[in-house]
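> run fold XRE family transcriptional regulator
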Amino acid sequence: MKKPSIIINIIKEEIGYSASASIQNRFIGTEGDDFDELKTNILEAVNLSFQDLGFVYTIDEIVLKPDIQSFFDFYKVINVKALSERIGMNQSLLAQYISGIKKPSANQTKRILQGVQQVGKELTAIQFLMS
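> ok
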């Protein structure tokens, strides 16, 4: 049997985060106070779920799929003002999505994701001049 792909949905809660997935009729769920604890707990939960099949996962083999609030909480280094300008979205509206005051539509979510992914592509292409 081939090792199944794991995609974990992550949601920002009032305190911390929750993570869950349903894979091959196995429910995987856990929580964590911060991102590092959550990743540790996700790895433990996934490996316990597939222990009977002899599968062992690393965190790099697990796709983490956060909601918008979780993403921006994990990656505080992303400047919301600059991203809103880049994707042509009102900064206040983006801030409301990030804080959970408003829920973005599927199109708005896609727009934000494409902007973040474009920045990521540009950053991976960067090379510094070495003196």
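The mean pLDDT is 95.
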